[in-house]
Design brief:
By secondary structure, the chain is mainly alpha-helical. The protein has one domain. Helices cover 79% and strands 0% of the residues. The chain has five helices and no strands. The longest helix has 25 residues. It is globular, with a radius of gyration of 15 Å. It starts with a helix and ends in a 5-residue tail after the last helix. The model has no long low-confidence stretch (mean pLDDT 94).
Length: 120
């Protein structure tokens, strides 16, 4: 069972690491996804990229996993509420996949956080 948890933790962490790197490498391309009511679009893309890489590092090293899990879940919920839900409401059904992906990642982050509550 321990091996399954380790494999699961690594598989769960991989998208956050890749998305974090993508945010840093392609910041100008991703800046268009930042809602228009939030100033400093490219700045936030970099901040999110760094946050995702820090969360990935925390999950892999098993340091501050509870906090990182809660913050990552909160970030995913912010994405759902500010990016994907408005797009879906606006008729963009392609955004539904992003909405469901981020909801699933938020759920996984909460489960991981719960597993490490009080352990680090």
């Amino acid at each position: 069972m321990k091996n399954l948890n380790t494999v699961g933790r690594f598989l769960f962490t991989l998208p956050f690491a890749v998305f974090g790197l993508m945010h840093l490498v392609s910041a100008s391309d991703l800046a268009g996804m930042v809602p228009t009511f939030i100033p400093g679009d490219v700045f936030w893309v970099y901040v999110i990229g760094i946050a995702l890489l820090l969360a990935s590092t925390s999950f892999i090293l098993k340091k501050k996993v509870y906090l990182a899990g809660l913050l990552t879940a909160a970030l995913m919920f912010v994405f759902v509420l500010t990016i994907y839900l408005p797009a879906v409401i606006g008729g963009d059904m392609m955004a539904m996949s992003g909405l469901l992906k981020d909801l699933g990642l938020a759920g996984g982050a909460l489960m991981l956080a719960n597993d490490y509550k009080g352990k680090d």
